[in-house]
Amino acid sequence: MTNETDSTNTAESTQPVIRSVAYTPNGGGDQAYEVIDAIRRGENPTPTVHPEVLESDSVINVEKFNLWYTETQAIHDISMKIPRGAVTALIGPSGCGKSTLLRSINRMNDLVEGVRVEGGISLNDSPIYAPSVDVISLRKRLGMVFQKPNPFPMSIFENVVYPLRIDGERRKEVLEEACEKSLRSAAIWDEVKDRLKKSALGLSGGQQQRVCIARAIVADPEVLLLDEPCSALDPVATLKIEELISQISERYTVLIVTHNMQQAARVSDFTAFMYLGRIVEYGPTATLFQTPALIETEHYVSGRFG
Amino acid sequence: MSDTNTTHAVHARRRTLPSAIGEPMVWLTGGALVVCLSMIVMLVLLVVVNGSKTFWPRAIEQVTLHDGEVFLGVATEHERDVETGVLHTLYRVGNRDIGQESFRWIDDEQISSIETPDDAVMLEREAWGVWFGVPESIVRVHAGQEDTVLAHGSGDVLDAYKALHKDARKTKAKIEQLKKVELGSINSEIEALRLSIRQAEIEASRGDRGLIRLGWVLWFVFGVLAVGCVGLVYRCRDMGTELGASNARQGELIRTSGVIAAVMLVLAMWIAGPWKGQVVDEAQLETMRADAATSEAALLVEYDEVIAQIREIEDVDHELRLVIVEPTSGHFSPVSQTLGDEPMYVSQVVRLVQANTLSTRGKLGVFFSRWWEYLSTNPREANTEGGVFPVIVGTVILTLLLTIFVTPMGVIAALYLREYAKQGFVTSLIRIAVNNLAGVPSIVYGVFGLGFFCYTVGGYVDTGAVESARMGATGWWGMFVLAGVLLIVGFAAKLWSKPNPGKLPTSFNKWMQRGSWLVWTAVLVLVVMLVTRTPYFYGFFEARAQDGTPTFGTRGMLWAALTLALLTLPVVIVATEEAIAAVPNSMREGSYGCGASKWQTIWRIVLPGAMPGILTGAILAMARGAGEVAPLMLVGAVKLNQDLPISTQAPFIHADQSFMHLGFHIFDLGFQSPDSQAARPLVWTTTLLFLAIVFALNFTAIMIRSRLRAKMAGPTV
Ligand SMILES: Nc1ncnc2c1ncn2[C@@H]1O[C@H](COP(=O)(O)OP(=O)(O)O)[C@@H](O)[C@H]1O
Ligand SMILES: [Mg+2]
To answer: Does the pLDDT value for residue B715 go beyond 50?
Structure first.
């Protein structure tokens, strides 16, 4: 994490300044970080995408997607397909646009003043940035969990069934059943089943995050978006959430942002390595962590560069 | 090397200035706090002490002066005369019926002796203030016969009095009840009959037959259209709500304009409803008059029966007389000034206090019975005696009403400012304006309330639009349709003023934005014009207004509550805005992430989260509003109105009535009382009561808030 801020700034300015790069080339001296250097220069090198990614059926399709926060571009011409029914991890140094990409998928960025996008994202082949799209029904098809646990100041039960409530569901049996099911899926049912009517704010951070996951999956979303769900948690809670992700990945497509390489290695089937708003390498997790195509990726996942 | 040297030099140079010593500031700030607190404590103590001693029974002194005059009285004040420098005492001597002032200053030098005779009593009577004297007898008077003396001599009289008084008071209460309820309802029925005839006459003289025909036609056409409208909206309900549906904006526009159109049509049906302006012809009017006359005659018979019943009870009641004699002149307390030669009825005595023989327990009994009387009965004697029950009710109802009005208004305004409006120059301007509103002198609100609420709005409710402002039917309907069309246009402009997803607003969007504001403003103006200039509305209380007794077009509870709501609005807006801003954005994001709309997020997340803050605003508004007097004098508080603003008769809350208010009552007692000496202790007591009520209201609200907080926060682990 040597000079991430500097490099971000470099990319953001219109005239990229090339700085002395803080790395010591490993192995043969001729093995420079070609792709990363190109990105730092402001170019958009073609990402290295392993064929396995393209083989499987995709649920989200990002095509030539660009995003600007007012003047600064946070995402540069990203194209990627998210495979259905798998866990895909987005890794990369902080500030590289992982969250931005994730939040573009459920159009959370609409809430930010001055955001502009080009290119498109489609969810099950329907474009989500078309003017005809009702953003609310889009978000109903996606579940999202945030970096900091954000349970609402109400009971655990009400927290979990919130998405159903806003859809107008009132039948008690339906709500109770859905609540139990999703709390079980979120592996927290046994801990909270006796205190469903108590405030969710009384739970520990890890429990709160699992309640948030239960809330995100209660309405059976097509894709679950997780934005560094463990970064605010202690190691034990982190472990629990990771187990939980592995479990729910059987039923949902999961897109998870993490800056923790081990986590990505443990929970995900596919991994995309991002840098300064671009995809550097994207492929099956095992490949990316053991035999990556790029030296940058190898160094990044082993912690030698970042 | 040189670097380290300079560092040392800097360190050596640094010293602690005398001004850095903080000790004096601790004393200064602490002292200031103590001064403030002690002033507040003093104020409360003064009110509590003075207010609570009013009802304590004090010894009745028999004062003999050097010139031989003897009188009974209670010493209320003792002080040195500013001019002459002699000590003098203020005696409450009562007995106004025999032509004396009820309070007398006596120079201490003049007094030759003071005794406290055991048999001296103080009579609290229903009229003419207190009477000091010595009980002589209780007599039963029979018409045309010799009176029978039931008891004679102080002790016997008091015993007999104790046995008789309660029943006498009950009978008296029964008479009052009969007069108020039975006679009152008969009277109001007669009045209602008269008003209905009057209303029919007014409508007959107006006779708009053409309008009614128009009404039927419109009604039919609109009915067909409305059904079509609803059907269209029903069919298009899914349009633009699904991913990839034809177009979100168009769908929303169709749904909303369908709803607007349907509402407009229903409104139109109601406005030109043929069932509303039923024209009565002369023959019908005649039959109505005849019907009313027979009903009235029946009612009058009933009235006479009740009167006879009352007479009967009264005759029995008036047989019992109490003779309490004043020592010097030998006068007894009379029935009234006009019946000065007859001793008073037992039932006229509210309370008889034999102050000089009372034990502490007896005194406590009198004390509490006076407090109870004070809290639970109507005022008497120009408010200087009796209770303040209607005053308490008026104050509490007014305060609750104002809170009920101001809280939603303030919350809605604050919600718009914080959640919907684009933060910028205009919103800052509005905030400044709102804050300045808080500084406007309250009497200004009073003037506004009187002019706008009482006369303008109230007048409209009573009699509809002013004659000169009424428009012709064609023009008005044109305006009506225009308003509907503009409403839809404005909504469309609003829809297209939002940029496409992921795009910055184009200049088209910006123009649409401005255009939508313009159109909304036009719609607002049109709606106001439509309402104020309608030729179809003649008010709800036309007949009464033409009799010169306006119902809502005058000062009253509703307008007072609205005026105070306006006055306290800034408090609620500011508090709510802060509370809304304090709701973390992560909560909103979480809600949006679950697929909630903006309104759902506001309703389910933001408002509950801001609720304690909103309640704080409401509490502050309540406290501010409860203490206001100046505007009330203009918009509704009166010296005396024993009709409570709430009752068990529909509509339960009589918001059109004027009311009594503790703040105004204090002012009235202190400055406008015919007997200011008698009223002075009551000023303190009323102040104490006022403080207690405001405190109780606030305390209740604070309790509600803390329970809410506890419920929301949950156990903090
Ligand atoms: N609301 C925002 N306004 C302006 N710039 C933003 C905003 N959010 C993120 N950015 C910028 O976009 C870039 C990517 O941010 P983000 O997606 O949060 O990175 P990551 O999640 O990978 O750490 C960063 O340079 C960041 O400064
Ligand atoms: Mg992030």
So the answer is: no
pLDDT for the residue B212: 66
**Cα B314 from chain centre:** 36
Going by their DSSP bridges, the two strands A48-49 and A278-284 should be labelled as parallel
Q: What share of chain B is helix, strand, coil (3-state, %, to 5)?
A: 65, 10, 25
- Judged against a pLDDT cut of 70, whether residue A2 lies above it is answered with no
Of A136, A199, A212, the CB nearest to B713: A199
pLDDT digits (tens, 9 = 90+) for A139-155: 999 999 999 999 998 89
In whole angstroms, give the CA distance from residue B658 to residue B562: 14
Closest-CA distance, A166 to chain B, in angstroms, reads 6
Structure tokens at B637: 């508080």
Q: Give this complex's ipTM.
A: 0.88
Instruction: Indicate whether A290 pLDDT > 50.
Output: yes
Q: Which ligand is nearest to the CA of A94?
A: 1
H or E segment at B415?
helix B389-415
Q: Cβ distance B500 to A110 under 8 Å?
A: no
Q: What distances in angstroms separate CA A218 from CA A231, A247, B92, one per listed residue?
A: 23, 15, 79
* Contact B657/A at CB under 8 A: no
Please tell me the distance between residue A72's alpha carbon and the centre of ligand 1 in angstroms: 10
The answer to whether the A30-141+223-306 and A150-220 domains have the same CATH topology is yes
State whether residue A103 sits within 8 Å of chain B by CB: no
pLDDT category of residue A10 using cuts at 50, 70 and 90:
very low
CA–CA gap between residue B489 and residue B589 (Å, rounded): 32
Q: Does B592 touch chain A (CB under 8 A)?
A: yes
List the domain boundaries for chain B.
211-270+465-537, 392-463+553-660
Greatest extent of chain B over all pairs of C-alpha atoms, in Å: 129
Query: Nearest CA to A289 among A256, A257, A250, A263?
Result: A263
DSSP 8-state assignment for residue A199: B
Q: How many other CB atoms are found less than 10 A from the CB of residue A177?
A: 11
Please say if the pLDDT value at position B345 is more than 80. yes
pLDDT surpassing 60 at residue B535: yes
CA of B644 to the centre of ligand 1 (A): 64
Q: What is the pTM of this model?
A: 0.84
Q: What is the CATH number of domain A30-141+223-306?
A: 3.40.50.300
pLDDT tens sequence across B29-55: 999 999 999 999 999 999 999 888 888
- The DSSP H or E segment spanning B676 is helix B676-713
Coil, helix or strand at residue A84: coil
Q: Pairing relation of β-strands A72-83 and B320-325?
A: unpaired
Which residue's alpha carbon is nearest to atom 5 within ligand 1? A69
Nearest neighbour of B714 by CB, restricted to A139, A167, A201: A201
CATH of domain A150-220: 3.40.50.300
Residue A12 has pLDDT above 80, yes or no: no
Domain residue spans of chain A: 30-141+223-306, 150-220
- How does pLDDT run across B594-610, given as a tens digit for each residue? 999 999 999 999 998 89
A90 pLDDT band (50/70/90 cuts)? Answer: very high
Name the residue at shortest CA distance from atom 18 of ligand 1. Answer: A99
- Nearest-CB residue to A107 (from B501, B504, B596): B501
Could you say which architecture CATH assigns to the domain B392-463+553-660?
A: Orthogonal Bundle (1.10)
Q: How far apart are CA B559 and CA B634, in angstroms?
A: 10
Res. B524: pLDDT tops 90: yes
Q: Hey, are the CB atoms on A199 and B712 less than 8 Å from each other?
A: yes
Residue B266 pLDDT more than 60? Answer: yes
Q: Does A132 touch chain B (CB under 8 A)?
A: yes
